[in-house]
Amino acid sequence: MRTLNKLLAPHLKIAPVLVKRAPSLTLAFDERRKSRLAATLDNGEEVALLLPRGTVLRDGDVLVADDGGLVRVVAAHETVLYVRAPNALTLTRAAYHLGNRHTPVEVGADYLKLEYDPVLADMLARIGATVEQVSLPFQPEAGAYGGGHKHGHDETFAEDYAIAQQVFGEHHGHEHPHDHDHVHDESCGHGHPPHRHAHR
What we know:
Elements: E1 2-7, H1 16-21, E2 24-27, H2 29-32, E3 36-40, E4 46-50, E5 62-65, E6 70-75, E7 78-84, H3 88-100, E8 105-107, E9 112-115, H4 118-126, E10 130-136, H5 157-172, E11 180-184, E12 195-199
Parallel strand pairs: 1-4, 2-6
Antiparallel strand pairs: 1-5, 3-4, 5-6, 7-9, 7-10, 8-9, 11-12
Function: Involved in urease metallocenter assembly. Binds nickel. Probably functions as a nickel donor during metallocenter assembly.
Subcellular location: Cytoplasm
Main location: cytoplasm
């Protein structure tokens, strides 16, 4: 059994004909975010996926097997909620409420897409969004604060990540002009134990 243990960096250009000839591996989103996986290529060959933890594969990625062979990643069609809204405000509210629930969301110019969930479908309908249950590939946003795999051909990621880091630095990297108690716990993401301190 071959092992797929390397993800080609997006800046490495490969001849399109080689990618086209490579066997494909069709995976749903839940499978594409697993770094250890027994899978079957679309040609029936069984393979083992062994990638660095935190890697999230995207449609069009190219993997390299331990024998040097290439494998092309395809995002599978899966059951998702396709969300539209009559205006930008409603779509923005929908995105806010989904983000508040830490729900993976694919963001388009005029739509949102998320894994099927009847409770969330009802919530979205109540705020005025139109929700359809459809079968489509699902590619949610990468975490703006660096969670997950920093992916080179997500065109907006580098900019979003830089902005998020700048905001984080501005908030935590200098003295505050106001006094307030601030409690850090494990969920804060700073890497230190819970404690209370006052900003000055």
